[in-house]
Design goal:
CATH topology: Rossmann fold
CATH architecture: 3-Layer(aba) Sandwich
Radius of gyration: 16 Å
Number of strands: 7
Number of helices: 8
Structural class: alpha/beta
Shape: globular
Number of domains: 1
Amino acid sequence: MKRIAVYCGSNFGARPEYESVATEVGAHLAQKGLGVVFGGGSVGLMGVVARAALDAGGEVIGVMPEMFKELEDDSLELTEMHIVDSMHTRKAMMADLADGFIALPGGLGTMDEIFEIATWGQLEIHNKPAGFLNTAGYYNGLKSFLDHMVTEGFVKAEHRNMVMVEANIADLIDRFENYQPPQVSKLIGQ
C-alpha cells in the first residue's frame, strides 16, 4: 500500500475524541509511510487529518470539486491539490489514487463515499480494503446494521466481511495490510 483515502466530516462533531483521533490517523499514516488522499478541505476533521499528516512529514493529496474551492482558505500546503469538475469526478479520482479507504466519523457525504467504495469492492471493480474507524463507538449502530443486512439475506457474509470496523488506526491498518478480497461471484442472486 502506498496511499490511504480518508473520508471524514467537514465538521468536528460533538465529541473531542473525534478531533483527537483525526490527528492520530494523519500522524500514524505518515509515520507508516502511507500518503493521505482526502477531499481537499481545510475545515473539520478533514483539515485535522491533513495537517497532522503534513506535520509528520507525510504526503497529502487533496481532491476538491470546483464548487467548494471558493469556500476554502488555502491554508494547507498540500503535496498535490486536484480541482475537479464534480463530486463524481472527485470520488473516482480518490479511488484511483488510493490503495485503501478509511471512514472516520462523518455525515452523509462520508457514508456516500465509503459505501460507494464498498460497493465497488463487492462488484470487483477494485480489490482494495475499506473500513470504518469506530471512534467512541460512533459506528456501533452501523456495524449492527451491516450484520442485520446479512441476517436478512441482502448482503453475503463474504461481502460484509470486506467492510472492516476497528476501534484504533493501528489495528485497521494491520488488517488492511493482510487484506484478501473474497473470491465470490459479483452477480446478484448467486
